[in-house]
Amino acid sequence: MAQPLIFSTGLCSNFSGEGVEKRLSCSKWKKTPSHLKLSSCSRLNITAGYNAHPQATDIPRQWYNLIADLSIKPPPPLHPQTFQPVKPEDLSPLFPEELIKQEVTNDRFIDIPDEVIDVYRLWRPTPLIRAKRLEKLLDTPARIYYKYEGGSPAGSHKANTSVPQVWYNGQQGVKNVVTETGAGQWGSALAFACSLFGLDCEVWQVRASYDQKPYRRLMMQTWGAKVHPSPSDVTQSGQKILQLDPLSPGSLGIAISEAVEVAAANADTKYCLGSVLNHVLLHQTVIGEECIKQMEAIGETPDLIIGCTGGGSNFAGLAFPFIREKLGGKINPHIIAVEPTACPSLTKGVYAYDFGDTAGMTPLMKMHTLGHDFIPDPIHAGGLRYHGMAPLISHVYELGYMEAVAIPQTECFQGAIQFARSEGLIPAPEPTHAIAATIREALKCRETGESKVILMAMCGHGHFDLPAYEKYLQGSMVDLSFSEDKIRESLAKIPQLVS
């Protein structure tokens, strides 16, 4: 049987703080605009605006597909055996029919099922918060806002896509879903969704993360998931890696291979993933759609939009709706993707067709990649460990609608400490990259005197990532980078195709 397609996952309860009202039930949101709060004791004076425009607090009823508004469409994924564009039926061993339709559609908007919105109401709409204490700490005229996604039960933005993915699988009669996870955010979100809809969940967690973050594993198990360290001895893909390196720290590419192998071999099992693919990025656009309404309600327009990128779902979720507005000539924000110097797919990788996994079981995708067998050092604490970047983000980057920077992890955690000690929230390692870039831009504003509006994606909390903070606080965290020779060695193994 021809091998199917895939990509990867792997990148971040409720916020409460001084002066913030207790979160209200969804039925009261239109009357009390409490989801837009300052992190200081005062609140934005926008009550009248919200009463006049109650739609500003609604959960979006549709997901947005950026492809529909791009004059140049992204290159198609290729079948790993024939090198021809993948057909929808090639994906059927892995995904339910509705998700395949979403993966390949050019429709501009996709209706969100009522059952999914009912679950979204557990944490959506999410708050847009002005970081006034951080502004004061930095002595900057910039106005900093962050869209906080850590209020979901799993503690990150990942639940925005895990819920619809599991629901669509359940509607097709699927009994089991499998996946990979890096830092554990995605695995936690999928386990949560499976517990709601009664599906069995099996997760391959990157070995380095499995060892470093036992509480993420316990979250998954509490919600009923079965969790394996990857590489594992329960799949052929894992066994081959362990034969070559019994102490392998694992990678998302390896974990993907293991999950895909199990899904392809079992008719009652499908594969879910937390980033990279079009339908995953689509589901995350509820973030940006809400944020556009929230910023309009307070009369602000972002000059800078900043988000972290590993596979790209969090960044795309915030940025894509704003790119639509930019393409329409309504706004002109500067959009920045921030990645770690330890895994710099956008800034150091090449734009080429490559496998989404290490074993070469997935389709070939045109993306920015470091090579499908690239394995980040296990001491890299900041999440964002995938070897490639979402093909759609890679395409948007090539079109010039955004730019990318790589920041070392010590600077990221320094920014995280500043954020935690001023705003109160402890960020997950992933959004520390966005925080560090935001601080850089805010300090530039201090030098120039410009009062720019900076909008940042804050994709989750770091309550289960405290060992990384311990390393930083103890002074044992080090910056990682890779020699050009190592990167060239990894890139040399990319399939040589005319693209």
From TrEMBL:
Q: Where is the Tryptophan synthase beta chain-like PALP domain positioned along the sequence?
A: 122-460
Classification via SUPFAM superfamilies: Tryptophan synthase beta subunit-like PLP-dependent enzymes
Report which residue ranges the record marks as coiled coil. none
Recall the GO molecular function terms of this protein's record.
L-serine hydro-lyase (adding indole, L-tryptophan-forming) activity; pyridoxal phosphate binding; tryptophan synthase activity
Query: What are the protein's UniProt keywords?
Result: Amino-acid biosynthesis, Aromatic amino acid biosynthesis, Lyase, Pyridoxal phosphate, Tryptophan biosynthesis
Reaction catalyzed: (1S,2R)-1-C-(indol-3-yl)glycerol 3-phosphate + L-serine = D-glyceraldehyde 3-phosphate + L-tryptophan + H2O
Q: Which InterPro entries does this chain map to?
A: Trp_synth_b-like (IPR006316), Trp_synth_beta (IPR006654), Trp_synth_beta/beta-like (IPR023026), TrpB-like_PALP (IPR001926), TrpB-like_PALP_sf (IPR036052)
CDD domains, per this entry?
A: Trp-synth_B
What are the required cofactors?
Answer: pyridoxal 5'-phosphate
The annotated pathway is:
Amino-acid biosynthesis; L-tryptophan biosynthesis; L-tryptophan from chorismate: step 5/5
Write the signal peptide boundaries: none
* Pfam families for the chain: PALP
Write out the GO cellular component annotations.
cytoplasm
Task: Please give the family membership noted in the entry.
Answer: Belongs to the TrpB family.
Task: Write down the NCBIfam families for this protein, in alphabetical order.
Answer: PRK12391.1, trpB_rel
Task performed by this protein: The beta subunit is responsible for the synthesis of L-tryptophan from indole and L-serine.
Q: Which PANTHER family match?
A: TRYPTOPHAN SYNTHASE, TRYPTOPHAN SYNTHASE-RELATED
Q: How does it assemble?
A: Tetramer of two alpha and two beta chains.
Q: Indicate what this protein is called per its UniProt record.
A: tryptophan synthase
Species the sequence originates in: Coffea arabica (Arabian coffee)
